Amino acid sequence: MSAPVVRALIAELAALPDDELAPLAERLAGLVGNRSAPPPRPASPYLTAEEAAELLRCRRRRIYELVGDGRLTRHGDGRRLLLRREEVERLAQGRM
């Protein structure tokens, strides 16, 4: 729908008296309520370097330095750096 059509539709709906608007609102709520969002994916036990940097609020380069210093353990397939979420969270809380 174009913006002018949507605006006209909203104006028409706003002009309806409450006794006519209530059944329409209930019907629309039922239609919208039937659309269920996909279930959230469980959090991965691993983080990428970028995700770890977001969590620690630092640059990605700092994550590589922490791995190089041995403060974080590298996991992954050789090309990609993965870090255990729980280890990064412990570091964020200052427990490492």
Describe this structure in words.
The protein folds into two domains: 3-33; 46-92. Helix content is 56%, strand content 6%. The protein has helices spanning 3-15, 18-33, 49-56, 60-68, 85-92, and strands spanning 46-48, 82-84. A two-stranded antiparallel sheet has the order 1-2. Helix 3 packs across helix 4.
Task: Report a brief summary of the structure.
This protein is mainly α. It has 5 helices and 2 strands, in the order ααβααβα. It has 2 domains: 3-33; 46-92.
In terms of quaternary structure, the protein is: single chain
Rounded to an integer in angstroms, the radius of gyration calculated over CA atoms is 25 Å
Helix count equals 5
Q: List the uncertain runs.
A: none
Strand content: 5-15%
Strands in their spatial order, largest beta sheet: 1-2
- Which word captures the global form? elongated
Q: Let me know the largest β-sheet.
A: 2 strands, antiparallel
Q: Topology as H/E string?
A: HHEHHEH
Average of per-residue pLDDT values: 88
Give the termini separation. Answer: 55 Å
Share of helix, binned:
55-70%
Total strand segments: 2
